Amino acid sequence: MSDYERLTSVLKEVFLKRGIFKKEDWAKCLGYNKGYLSGILNGKEAISDSFLKKISDEFGVNPDWVKTGDGDVFLESENKEPSTPASDGSLTIPAEVWDVLKMQVEGLVLKDASLREKDMHIERLINLLEKQISENKENTESATARFDRVIDLLERQMSTSKKSTAKGDAGAPAEVG
To answer: Which fold has domain 3-83?
Structure first.
């Protein structure tokens, strides 16, 4: 396992324990931009001593283990577990993590408001479509009724025509041949 793979592995462990899943949020918690952290994790940027010190100070990660694979992953004396409850039962959350959580909640609130607005638009469209369908049904029924009346009138006229033709034929003189 390379130093980059070890670093990625330990950061995944650290952040997953804290419920932080996006690498963009990892970068914010560490105080770096996403591009820089991505470069480090992909091996395009060198893992600097200051970066190793930062993760050691923040999370108790053993820099020697990241570099060489020797020793324990975490420094025993400095293994900081912010997600571990204090003796009074409270939970200590680093400010950076809290900021990320707040941003995620705010994003969810905005998405929720946006979804409610979209739901209202969809409801209006459904109502308009139902109204249009109803009007079309009424128009179809009205047209069908008019068509039926026209057919009825035509049938009566044809019937009357046949009767008058039949009467006219009976009263006409027969042809002598």
So the answer is: 434 Repressor (Amino-terminal Domain) (1.10.260)
